[in-house]
Amino acid sequence: MSRPTISDVARAAGVTKATVSHAYSGHRPISAATKARVFAAADALRWVPSSSARALAARRANAIGVVLRRDPAILASDTFFPAFIAGVEQTLAEREVALVLQVVGSRGAEERAYQAMAAGRADGVVVLDLHRADWRVPFLAGLGLPAVLLGAYEGETRLSCVRTDDAAPVRDLVAHLRERGHTRIAHVAGPLDYVHSYARARAYVRAVGSRALLREGDFTAGSGRALTADLLALRDRPTAILFANDTMAIAGTSYAQSRGLRVPEDLAVAGFDDDHLSAHLSPPLTSVSTDPARRGRVATARLLADVAGDDPRDVAVDCTALRLRASTDAPAPATARRTTPAPELEEEFR
Amino acid sequence: MSRPTISDVARAAGVTKATVSHAYSGHRPISAATKARVFAAADALRWVPSSSARALAARRANAIGVVLRRDPAILASDTFFPAFIAGVEQTLAEREVALVLQVVGSRGAEERAYQAMAAGRADGVVVLDLHRADWRVPFLAGLGLPAVLLGAYEGETRLSCVRTDDAAPVRDLVAHLRERGHTRIAHVAGPLDYVHSYARARAYVRAVGSRALLREGDFTAGSGRALTADLLALRDRPTAILFANDTMAIAGTSYAQSRGLRVPEDLAVAGFDDDHLSAHLSPPLTSVSTDPARRGRVATARLLADVAGDDPRDVAVDCTALRLRASTDAPAPATARRTTPAPELEEEFR
DNA sequence: TGCGACCGTAAAAGCGGTTTGACGATCCGG
DNA sequence: CCGGATCGTCAAACCGCTTTTACGGTCGCA
Questions:
Q1: Are residues B333 and B225 in the same domain?
Q2: Among chain A residues 30 through 49, which have CB within 7 angstroms of nucleic chain D?
Q3: Could you report the per-residue pLDDT of A181-205, keeping only the tens digit for each?
Q4: Which residues of chain B does A101 touch, with a Cβ-Cβ cutoff of 8 Å?
Q5: Superkingdom of this entry's organism (chains A, B) (predicted)?
Q6: Do residues A193 and A212 both lie within one domain?
Q7: Is there a single domain that holds both residue A139 and residue A250?
């Protein structure tokens, strides 16, 4: 009743295990007649090679890994992750390679997870949520585990890296707002130790120069709301806010509206990442689509090349596109009336 | 330079491999002194047991699988999936079990994926997107692979099943609308061969009886828009529409608004699944949260029990909650003016 | 003091594949 | 017609861990 093994197939075909193996792998020539017998036997027995045995013998798991250190709640509301995974799976599906996913809560668990990957769970990993000076870069190099970094890592590394130009869309967005007469343009960034948050924030600062009005959020709706309240309470409040993701932008919009500001007439708002619902909001939200699926595909292809023995390499993928929508489509207001934050938010900022 | 093995550890500790193994597994008592030496040696060598070797010898992968047959594009915009995975990982994180994910495009690939899971990639699987009379149920049973079904499967099965009451929230929603005076309540369902779509649709039909106005969509924005157009063009058009997910509801709302209807004054709209943005739309969308993360946790716990040798069992999880918001919060309109569909949609329905 | 029970470790046999070295058979050219 | 190259298969050695069997040493108890 238990699964047939390669030996059963070999016996049924009247050959040895080695012949069966070679018939499938092609590592040695096998005569057509023998091959046919082997395949027929395998078919009859419904033999499926054990992937654990194969992984052990061939020293390759036929799987790639992703380990994520995140609060599951954040994962659940993240628009990037599922799209990225979809892309990964797209290029994986063609090969017969699986994706091993591990979500962990602590640094220790993360190290163990990567070690487990290196110890046979996966042939390589793709590294997300890259930090500037990320400890995982030397760590993975030390493990000797092929890895591709997603994001513009700036330090020394012998790992592949899939880079995206986060700066260009930010510059374009600023230009777009300037054309409409905005001069007080604020930016609510993501955590600045993430390379992509940092890149966006830096591009913003360079674009607006001395007029920079920067706040560091954490990508959650709560921080979007709180920082918007903060900005709108300034004496010389911004007339436009660039948020580092759509979640914060939406929360910010809804706060502004609740305080009586019209978007975009009194306040222009733009997000980042182009959540699939953003086009359906009122007003539709200007955003930047970043094609996570495409990056998933590219990163995976690169990783598979690394695993196959290719030398690590940087690849740039040009995947950002401005989605200009109504939330930024109005001339800048002539005078910007200041807004006092809702009482409960005051406290939040003590 | 290559990874140390259990033999290296054994040699360093002056014992045999078996002792090292037992020291960790506890399958045999090992004296404290020996254990200490073993652990010290392992530590010094930075030994991490090979998971492929372990999987082969112990006939257990320490991983569970999910195989999904979906268009990656759908995956990317699905709100259920990431939240569910987050839940799965939550209960997995406590053990050192990994999740193996495989997204496939065809029935054949799906069978191969499940076979690979059974052949050592995973110790069990959780089955999503359950159909009525799903071929995977007998197939998995035949494979002898522990599995838990997510959804109210009605056929014969020796597999565990995590059930949710989809009917109650639909009934409540209908009651809620009736209280506001609605008598023409339509339902845009998901594909009716999915058990959850079917359950929702059936609950709807039972609740409204002979006044049922049912359309079958496919969970995409496109179908939400098209079916809304269809319904609003009826002579006696509905004054309220229940959609089987938020994506369709949002697309439907935006269509209705574009045709000059106010939501909720002229048309009440409710969704399902409670996308994290739904509360931020204008108007905020009434929906039903279904706590996918919780179901992920429960399903995983159940699967791990099955894998450990427990008998398959059904578990009911009560995880739905009505989120009543503005999109349904108005009295039903006295007279419902009929809307003609936008021209391009006419064609779509030939 | 003697014997069985028990404890802790060693030794070895797998788990189900892959890979390599060896070898008989066939083929070829000189 | 013979020697070497090539082809196709076999046999056996792993891969790194788990698990079972065996066994010497202790201990408890009569």
A1: yes
A2: 30-31, 33-35
A3: 999 999 999 999 999 999 999 999 9
A4: 85, 89, 98-101
A5: Bacteria
A6: yes
A7: no
